[in-house]
Amino acid sequence: QVQLVESGGGLVQAGGSLRLSCAASGIIFSRNVNNWYRQAPGKQREWVATITNGGGINYADSVKGRFTISRDNAKNTVILQMNSLKPEDTGVYYCNARGVFNDYWGKGTLVTVSS
Predict the structure, then answer these.
(1) Cβ-contact 70, 81 below 8 angstroms
(2) Which of 18, 35, 55, 99 is the least crowded, having the fewest Cβ atoms under 10 Å away?
(3) Rounded distance, CA 54 to CA 31, Å?
(4) What is the full DSSP assignment across 14-30?
(5) Is the distance from CB of 77 to CB of 34 less than 8 angstroms?
(6) What is the per-residue DSSP string for 38-96?
(7) 23 — phi, psi (to 5°)?
(8) Burial category of 104 from C-beta neighbours within 10 Å (exposed 0-12, middle 13-18, buried 19 and up)
(9) Contact of 8 with 23, CB cutoff 8 Å
C-alpha cells in the first residue's frame, strides 16, 4: 500500500523558514514526478513546485527564489525548503507523486505564517 506522509509544518513568523519533508512507502519517488501543492483557507489547491524523475525542477512564480525542492533518493523523501515566508504562504501543504498510471497524495501538513 502506498503512503505519502508530510511533516515539518508549523507556525512561523513572516521572514522565517520551514523545511517540509514527504516520506514515501510503497512507491519509489525517483520513478515519479514529485510535486508540492498547497491550499490556503477558502481557496483552491495550487501547485507550488515540481521535481521530475529526471531531476528537472520548476516553481510557481509566487515562490520562486524563496522555496527549494529536492529529493533524497536514498531516503525516498522529497523536501521543500521554504525561506522568507510570507503570510500568504499559509495553508496546508500536500505532497504528490505522479506517474503514468498513478497519482498519490499525502494528507498534508499545515503551515501558518504570522505577520
Answers:
(1) yes
(2) 55
(3) 9
(4) TT--EEEEEEEESS-GG
(5) no
(6) EE-TTS--EEEEEE-TT--EEE-TTTTTTEEEEEETTTTEEEEEE-S--GGG-EEEEEE
(7) -105, 135
(8) middle
(9) no
pLDDT averaged over every residue in the chain: 97
Supply 38's cell numbers.
498547497
Q: What tens digit of pLDDT does each residue of 28-72 get? A: 999 999 999 999 999 999 999 999 999 999 999 999 999 999 999
Q: List 108's β-bridge partners, or say none.
A: none
User: Do residues 36 and 68 touch, judged by C-beta distance below 8 A?
Assistant: no
What residue type is 39 in one-letter code? Q
